[in-house]
Amino acid sequence: MAVDGQQALTLEAGDFILLPKTPGFTMTGFEPVIPEIIDPHVAALTAEGEARHGAQEGPPSVRILGGYFVFDSEDSGLLVSLVPDQVHVRGVERLSILVKLLIEEAARRQSGRALVLTRLIEIPLVESLRLTQAPDAPAGLLRGLGDVRLAEAIRQMHADPARPWTMAELAKEAALSRSAFFDRFSRSVGVPPMEYLLAWRIGAGQRHAASAGNRHRRRRRARRLRFGEHLQHRLQPPCRPAAWPLRKGDGALAGRARDSAQIDV
Question: Rounded CA gap, 94 and 16, in Å?
């Protein structure tokens, strides 16, 4: 498997690949072939729920379970930019078990299937991102959080992004000198500390704006509902026309009552 901009990988059974930015990639066997473009949105074409590529006859040489994640956040781009471009996990039995459970649940078609699949899919994502906290992992936010010294400074930035942080203050939170903190942060996270802080502030502002917009829409909807209820109450007659007491000689009144009963306010 050769991902654009990354070193080619030789995959083995049970491997897990996470590509946060969904780049282009080429998958081949060990024989030289001419690459063929494949539509990533092609639907499963078989009764087993599989989309077959390459030779259409005979047993398949490899089976791959694919899927995607959607981050429901206004600043999802910031999160994606701070995780490695490629995460390759091998030899983790927990992930292999989860994949087997995913395949079984997808084939059952039972009630609650969507909920169970959603939860099962989230776990491999978390498990794979945990592995990027190792010291030899690619640079990114999770590797920075895996560093005990840097993690404290990062948490402080997240907790109070509006504070006018200085390099000296952040270095003090990490119990490092300014130069050591700058170098260590840049190597682990992939960007300098103040650049990271600026990006986090922009993301926090976007979240706040989105939250304020949602609250404003909810208030407007509540006002419309209250106005509608008030209007309905004002237009409703004090009692149903059929309950009006009628006396002899009140035919005109009865006729008006019948007419008014046909008006549905």
Answer: 11
Please check whether residue 153 is in contact with residue 173, taking contact to mean a CB–CB distance below 8 angstroms.
Answer: yes
Which residues are CB-neighbours of 256 under 8 A, at least 6 positions away? none
32, burial (CB in 10 Å: exposed 0-12, middle 13-18, buried 19+): exposed
Domain 139-234 CATH superfamily? Homeodomain-like (1.10.10.60)
Location of structure tokens 């600026």: 198
pTM summary value: 0.55
All CATH 1.10.10.60 domain ranges of the chain, comma separated, are 139-234
Instruction: For residue range 39-96, list pLDDT tens digits in order.
Output: 766 655 555 667 777 777 888 888 888 777 777 766 666 677 667 778 888 888 888 8
Report which secondary-structure segment, H or E, holds 88. strand 87-89
